[in-house]
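ARCHIVE CARD
Drawer: 12
Card no.: 0347
Subject: one protein chain, sequence and derived structure
Cross-reference: see card 0346
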Amino acid sequence: MTTNDLPVIAAVDGSTHSRQALDWAAREAARRHLPLLIVHVRPLTRNVDEETGQREADALLAEAVRRSERVAPALRPSTLAPLDFPAAALVSLARDASMVVVGSRGLGGFRSLLIGSNSLATASMASCPVVVVQDSGSDEDDRPQEAGARADIVAGVAADESSEAVLDFAFATAATRPGARLRIVHGWTMFSSMLAGGPVFDRATAAGSAARSLAEVTAGRQERYPQVEVVREPVNGSASRTLVTASATAALAVIGRRKGGESLGLGLSPVAQTTLTHALGPVAVVPC
């Protein structure tokens, strides 16, 4: 299996959030012509016998397969039900996946939290992009939610080589959506301009320098993806605020993890942490 054939993994646990994540994953797998792997991790801490746990997992996965086939009829998903801690299992499976898609909270999540601990841990440590799908509303009738009118892909980048993986993922995602715009956001301040050796006291000059840096870091990809309309947005101030606002109407917000989550645990950068915990739509966290 080549890297271009690695599956989209959808994590399901029977919660509303995971059903919406499954819908998103199925549509994305169909757009990218990738296989879909539906995973239900059977928690080690549950006080049920092996036979009962497996039977419950089989029923949940069977329903998830039926749901995914309603969303994307051409898919032939496979399933997996490992016995493990949820985040640990997903991080392990991510080594052989194109992306992992999770709901913002699972069955055990507190309603006061916008993102659950398993989703946060997976996004912090997985070796592939992790998409966290926020709750888009009620699905009491259990029908797959139809995709809305969201069109833009929004990517937050730093003006250096650390954004390469973010831009690769964002452009590839926008290219699968006909008519989608790619908004590339870069936050700058006078302090960041000083650290980069740029203007310190002239705001207009610093803004021009940030715009040039953004153009340089994104150069070359437009030729590879001529069908993608690109809008570059150097923002004076908080990039995370712009990304959170944009996430309410975007098809996807894409951010870089930037810190070593593999060894340090929850190693998200401040921008990634803020965007992920406050976003109003799906967010992709890309290792970089």
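Annotation on reverse: Residues 106-114, 140-149, 260-265 have pLDDT under 50 and may be disordered. Strands lie at 8-11, 36-39, 78-80, 99-103, 130-133, 153-156, 181-188, 229-236, 252-256, 283-286.
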